[in-house]
TrEMBL record:
This is Mutator-like transposase domain-containing protein. Residues 8-46, 592-649 are annotated as: Disordered. It comes from Branchiostoma floridae (Florida lancelet). Coiled coil: none annotated. It comes from the Eukaryota. InterPro entries: Mutator_transp_dom (IPR049012). Residues 608-635 have a biased composition (Basic and acidic residues). Residues 143-285 form the Mutator-like transposase domain. Residues 639-649 have a biased composition (Polar residues).
Amino acid sequence: MLRAADVIAQRVRAEKRKSQPSEQQDAVRQRNKRRKEREDQGVVTKPYNLSIHGTKQEQEDFMLRLKSICTKMGETHGKRLTYRETLLQAMSAWLKSHDEENDHRLDLDCGGAGLPFRARNGFSAASPATKDEPMFLATVTAINHLSDQLQDHARSCQEQLVVKKKNGVHMQGHAGKLTLCCSAKHNVYWDSSPHFYGKFLVNYRMAHAYFTSGIRPLQYKKICDAAGMGKIVDKTLRERYQPVYSEVVEEFAEASMAQALQEETAIQVMVDGEDFAGISIMSDARHCWRKNAMFSDVAFLGDRTHRVIKLITVSQDEEQYSQNHELVGTQQFYEWADENAVNILVHAHDNNKSVNKLVENRAAQGHRCVNGNDTWHATKGIARGMKKITMGPKYKERVTWHPELSDKAGSIKTHVYWAMKNCALDPERLRGYIDNIIKHYKNDHTGCHHTSNCRISGDAYKPSKVLIQDPKAEKLLVDFLHQTVVYKNAENYVHAKDTHYVESFNNALLVYHDKRIAFGKEAYLLRINLAILDWNENVDRDHTSEWRCEDAAAPRRREPKKQLVEKKYTFRKEVWNEFMRRVYMPNLADDTVHDQAPAGNLDQPPADNHDQPPADNHDQPPADNHDQPPADNHDQPPAGSQDQAPEDA
Ligand SMILES: [Zn+2]
Ligand SMILES: [Zn+2]
């Protein structure tokens, strides 16, 4: 009733106002004009309008409440607040209280900061206040140890142990060193990782994972930093873990290559029987960077097993010019082969001139070694070279190129490839097959192979390509064929060798080796050796299915694509076992473990223990711990324990 009376009084006042001089049309217009001028000058801000739909009743109700809040909010200032100020304050207050309420509810649910721990539905729950807690790696054994410690504490004290709010967690690498405390001020120290010889197991495992994955140091750092899971700093990785790890991996790689050589020989003996005289190989070089490489690797793969039997890394210390690295590496390979009585028969490579020469020289000295240049590179060159005689500007037609040749590039490439495969190791026959291309395209098939279409079909044969009739076209094609590398060095191509395996090996190396990153020699060799282990274990592995596809980039491809089974990586497990055997039993590993403190010295942290701030060394009871009852001595490991004072991080 009172409200209705207010409204009526307001309306009366409004009616009355209309008759005042300041509300007359001219006065209002003047006022509006002045306001507009002040707005344009930037003296006052423009009003913004809020449209709220509703009935007249609702609108009045709304305004009444708004005005009432304006008045109440202004009471402390002794002046009514404006609509704008009131609405802003009301909205912010609501948002703030809403967020606080939410966080508080979540924290109450699960024991957030400043609250006792509470499980929710039998689990610990994440909340806004706890979502950024540090993570550490723990193992089953470590958890069992914690359970044991808690039980010990409970025997003499009923209070709940919780991780100390302040400095309760210290990360050492990926391991957490935790201090739990109860309201009676008992401290329990717990390490998330089992110890061995003053080292944390989880850090060794993570170092192994980092090395074996082939990821770059920076990638490892990024993952760890983003996850907040601690990390092993680069220097520690390099100085503490890498030397032993590299050594183990190198030995495994050596063993893998020795086994590959053995298998290669065994297969060749099986094929050749009494005539066995040696094995065949393929090789290729790869530079560590794109330009002026510090290291180059020359990989040697068995022709039958496709496994790496030897890999030689040539550094700039040995040979200044990286373009000579392949030759130096190949020379070293032959020195090794001679020393170990490994006879090489066909050496396939991608037509490196100096390697060709080296192999020829060895043949001249009485070795049975011959070059087998890569067929793929040779035929690729043919397709490229043919372009010059199959197309060109109009004014050079029939001079540098001829339309009668335009449709033949693909077929000639295929034919040369076929000729290499079917020449029965006879260079003259290979040249003859290539020469016959001309006759075949002149529709004279007397010299063609008995298996080819033109011979099988006999008189019914209809040439699929334009016949060569112009002597100019014939001359262009003859000249082209005679200067191809296959024709000129036919003896290097009679073996029809293919080096694509060694090229894929160099490609596979990229998983471990990023060409953009410069590694030190030890890290470089470690990554190479990991790549060898990976390759030798996985090359030619089984495939689950084959599928054929049309590839626009390779329209003449006949081979189906294979869906390979997943890689196994058994070498990882073996490397890990041996790595741990060596660090766990340093005395057994002869003098190979250089980076480790002697057994008697374990209680002293090493000098380079920069990862652990001295103040954090809670292997000693903290100073504020003197009120601890002697009976409660369960939180300090027994003195002299070998498992004390982990120093790695
Ligand atoms: Zn207690
Ligand atoms: Zn023919």
